[in-house]
Amino acid sequence: MVEGNGAAEKIFNQGFRYSFAVLSPARRYLEGVIDLALHQKPRPQTLAISAASDAFSLEVQAGAVDYAQAHGLKVVYNNKYPETATDVSSVISAIKASNPDLILNAGHLQDALLVHKGLKEQNVQAKLYGYSVGPDTPDFTTALGKDANYVFGGAQWSESVKYHADRAGFYRTAPEYAKAFAAVYHHRPDYHNAESTATCLAFQYAIENAGTLDPEKVRDALSKLDVTTFYGLLKFDSRGLNVYKPMVTNQIQNGKLVTVWPAGLAAAKPQYPTPPWGQR
To answer: Is the backbone peptide bond immediately before 25 cis, with ω within 30 degrees of 0?
Structure first.
């Protein structure tokens, strides 16, 4: 099985030989947001991070905390809430009391909306707001309007990344893929669409390399795959995880999602620090 929508390393730490994932692991989802922040002026000093209590979100949180501390950031708030929570006001109050420079959340779209609305309601000011999942989904901007501006999100892919595929026969760049996708489905693709397409490409290339549909030979071909696509590098470690492809960091600028990090893949410069509520 090649999959493109389950990033928790817990899936791949159980010795399964026939499972592969084209996406970067959960622990890396917010590394790019932190790295971007550390390259800005004024340099942030403190971080607050909340997380839903599912396996994916907790791995994202743990990875972000480790990365932040390794790069000199002080983690002033680090806690979780039930994954079914509909009220996180106490979490928001605790974050506000910690007065962080950076506020991150590890969760899913509904978590991002819940937390971001709560931060505005309690007037929690920070230099940067970032989410593991949410900003890349059109519903985030639709639901929040101008409050979505300046928000950062970790992403597996965006249509502005500058990868160029090694092989002909499929769309070789992200813009080419995005244009073709929109022509068929009548909306722009987000990274969930792209990573799902990439799973099919991984299978295709492995079958071509194996020259057969024999499951064991296709499995071995997958384990040796090393190819760049419109989506990025498809390559797997011994567990079947794609630890080699970097995440990208997107930001909502004037209602539009743009890639701002890493610099080599970026289409625009990050807008930082975030203006106060009401000035966005």
So the answer is: no
